[in-house]
Amino acid sequence: MSETLENLLQENRQFPPPDALAASANVTAAAYDEAAADRLGFWEAQARRLSWATPWESVLDWSNPPFAKWFVGGKLNVAYNCLDRHVEAGRGSKVAIHWEGEPGDTRTITYADLHRSVCQAANALTDLGVTAGDRVAIYLPMIPEAAVAMLACARIGATHSVVFGGFSADALSGRIQDASAKVVITADGGYRRGKPSGLKPIVDEAVAQCPTIQHVLVVRRTGQDVAWGDKDLWWHETVEQASPEHEAQPFDSEHPLFILYTSGTTAKPKGILHTTGGYLTQVSYTHHAVFDLKPDTDVFWCTADIGWVTGHSYIVYGPLSNGATQIMYEGTPDTPHKGRFWEIVEKYRATIVYTAPTLIRTMMKWGEDIPAKFDLSSLRLLGSVGEPINPEAWMWYRKHIGRDTCPIVDTWWQTETGGIMISPLPGVTATKPGSAMTPLPGISADVVDDQGESVPNGGGGYLVLREPWPSMLRTIWGDDQRFVDTYWSRFDGMYFAGDGAKRDADGHLWLLGRVDDVMLVSGHNISTTEVESALVSHPSVAEAAVVGATDPTTGQAIVAFTIPRGHVDSEGDAGEALIAELRNHVAKTLGPIAKPRQIMLVPELPKTRSGKIMRRLLRDVAENRSLGDVTTLQDSTVMDLIASGMKTGK
Ligand code: ATP
Ligand code: MG
């Protein structure tokens, strides 16, 4: 990874923060200095943003690395911090969640409402025998009860394990078994793409394999018929009948808050364990700092699903701990029409949108005339997370969603890091399209070479974290050794994230995706991200995925799968001409070494359920192999679509 193409990173557009935002920003440049002078003192100051029942005795215990303890001896209740303290401060009537169901039904939930529901759910779970330390699986659509269920667990000290509602019965039962969960909270179904889809039948199939499950709590969402067994209980007959009085008990700062399984794109899913005090400190601080959240005026919208870490940290714990008003949407962005997201922004006057590059590229494909139909003037800040954002997608987002005025925060982090680690600060940083810029105050990220030495500016290598951080994973559930082996063994004393990165001439960070996705072409390391970004910078391209295929002469050769933008003619000769033009465009942008051997025009790309490109399957296609495991694919028909709709150019 140390050898990099010299002509990469030619991006030199820069966007300083808007004056008004800079003048009233929650966090200024002083935060970097404070954290540099006294990192632990800095995090202590952030922990004081929360309400603690018992103060901590020491900030960090790192005597047994990599097993960290933060805010040692401190006690707090997460749900108290997200709800009770806002209600006690007289903000109970403030809207916590504007919920929008896919069919168009809506609910407006205040902090007082949410507090009441969470107390009821806490009492109901206690009645079912759930006590502190027990595990509860949550398998729900994007309905408010998902947040209620998580907060109710936190309130009574039960450890939740949310499983994304699109996962199969096998995936669900594997996760329930790994955590020995006692209760599952689910729904009859949820709305996806305009129709109800059943969840309860999947739970029934999973629970049959899970002897630890004692109760299945079922929210009625769609009203569809469900089979009913002796473990099953309706939410509305239990939770909604329970007492709304519940006093939250404080738990130790290191009490397990949740387990979240990584998506398993690479191997057997890992149960990432997060605990209480450090996690809440960092997600609350980063939500306040990175999104410049003003609880009295902002309407925040994170479009992620609650089944991913982004939903945990930036729908539930970050925003609610900060007393934010937010939007929660149940369905898909194209139901009933491709402008649904922007219609929601207009309707609720959203001020901050936090979404993923995959969605931005999809919107690019659909065309800018769609967002242009809606009033997006309420927006003041945009965020991105999940994959590297290609500079042209970044520019499109800025121009067509952000009216050329909203700052964009490209936030790098992982399930394992719990909260945002690398990101611009919107009132401070002059951003560059495609760069996550700098580690946040109190975070020590670095880029190192094979030997673990920091690379100089202009160099590339492996992204590592040199110091522990408050919301770091504490272990892999039930497998300390795998935790050590996976993250702490590649480089001595450093956390290895598995991602490649570059540091540009100014010292700013550019994330390059997983190191497994780096190609070796004629002795040069070339990242798939860079070639994809070069392709997306062509006006005819909406989205691209690049893989390295074995090649007799060059070791690996670059093969690109490219989705043309909506208006582009890619049939017959026009398609061939486009392919030739794109190959030359990449060669011109990145240098002849990066010229793809082959470009295929395709209608779709294979993606994981969290919307990330699955390059592994495309490598199979590029190398003419039969496809590997496709179970984590979002849409299993897409590979057929690619095979049938493929136009190949050599
Ligand atoms: P799995 O670990 O199960 O294979 P995953 O890594 O995709 O799945 P997440 O923890 O949700 O699961 O995603 C974290 C990864 O997403 C990062 O390691 C990185 O590769 C990528 N990522 C997230 N945000 C960014 C970003 N802003 N820029 C570049 N890459 C990002
Ligand atoms: Mg990962």
From TrEMBL:
<feature type="binding site">
    <location>
        <position position="538"/>
    </location>
    <ligand>
        <name>Mg(2+)</name>
    </ligand>
</feature>
<protein>
    <recommendedName>
        <fullName>Acetyl-coenzyme A synthetase</fullName>
        <ecNumber>6.2.1.1</ecNumber>
    </recommendedName>
</protein>
<dbReference type="InterPro" id="IPR000873">
    <property type="entry name" value="AMP-dep_synth/lig_dom"/>
</dbReference>
<feature type="binding site">
    <location>
        <position position="499"/>
    </location>
    <ligand>
        <name>ATP</name>
    </ligand>
</feature>
<dbReference type="InterPro" id="IPR032387">
    <property type="entry name" value="ACAS_N"/>
</dbReference>
<feature type="binding site">
    <location>
        <begin position="192"/>
        <end position="195"/>
    </location>
    <ligand>
        <name>CoA</name>
    </ligand>
</feature>
<dbReference type="InterPro" id="IPR042099">
    <property type="entry name" value="ANL_N_sf"/>
</dbReference>
<keyword id="KW-0547">Nucleotide-binding</keyword>
<keyword id="KW-0007">Acetylation</keyword>
<keyword id="KW-0436">Ligase</keyword>
<feature type="binding site">
    <location>
        <begin position="386"/>
        <end position="388"/>
    </location>
    <ligand>
        <name>ATP</name>
    </ligand>
</feature>
<feature type="binding site">
    <location>
        <position position="310"/>
    </location>
    <ligand>
        <name>CoA</name>
    </ligand>
</feature>
<dbReference type="Pfam" id="PF00501">
    <property type="entry name" value="AMP-binding"/>
</dbReference>
<dbReference type="InterPro" id="IPR025110">
    <property type="entry name" value="AMP-bd_C"/>
</dbReference>
<feature type="domain" description="AMP-dependent synthetase/ligase">
    <location>
        <begin position="89"/>
        <end position="469"/>
    </location>
</feature>
<dbReference type="Pfam" id="PF16177">
    <property type="entry name" value="ACAS_N"/>
</dbReference>
<keyword id="KW-0479">Metal-binding</keyword>
<keyword id="KW-0067">ATP-binding</keyword>
<feature type="domain" description="Acetyl-coenzyme A synthetase N-terminal">
    <location>
        <begin position="30"/>
        <end position="82"/>
    </location>
</feature>
<dbReference type="GO" id="GO:0003987">
    <property type="term" value="F:acetate-CoA ligase activity"/>
</dbReference>
<comment type="function">
    <text>Catalyzes the conversion of acetate into acetyl-CoA (AcCoA), an essential intermediate at the junction of anabolic and catabolic pathways. AcsA undergoes a two-step reaction. In the first half reaction, AcsA combines acetate with ATP to form acetyl-adenylate (AcAMP) intermediate. In the second half reaction, it can then transfer the acetyl group from AcAMP to the sulfhydryl group of CoA, forming the product AcCoA.</text>
</comment>
<feature type="binding site">
    <location>
        <position position="541"/>
    </location>
    <ligand>
        <name>Mg(2+)</name>
    </ligand>
</feature>
<dbReference type="InterPro" id="IPR011904">
    <property type="entry name" value="Ac_CoA_lig"/>
</dbReference>
<feature type="binding site">
    <location>
        <position position="522"/>
    </location>
    <ligand>
        <name>CoA</name>
    </ligand>
</feature>
<dbReference type="Pfam" id="PF13193">
    <property type="entry name" value="AMP-binding_C"/>
</dbReference>
<keyword id="KW-0460">Magnesium</keyword>
<comment type="similarity">
    <text>Belongs to the ATP-dependent AMP-binding enzyme family.</text>
</comment>
<dbReference type="InterPro" id="IPR045851">
    <property type="entry name" value="AMP-bd_C_sf"/>
</dbReference>
<feature type="binding site">
    <location>
        <begin position="410"/>
        <end position="415"/>
    </location>
    <ligand>
        <name>ATP</name>
    </ligand>
</feature>
<feature type="modified residue" description="N6-acetyllysine">
    <location>
        <position position="612"/>
    </location>
</feature>
<feature type="binding site">
    <location>
        <position position="536"/>
    </location>
    <ligand>
        <name>Mg(2+)</name>
    </ligand>
</feature>
<feature type="binding site">
    <location>
        <position position="514"/>
    </location>
    <ligand>
        <name>ATP</name>
    </ligand>
</feature>
<feature type="domain" description="AMP-binding enzyme C-terminal">
    <location>
        <begin position="530"/>
        <end position="612"/>
    </location>
</feature>
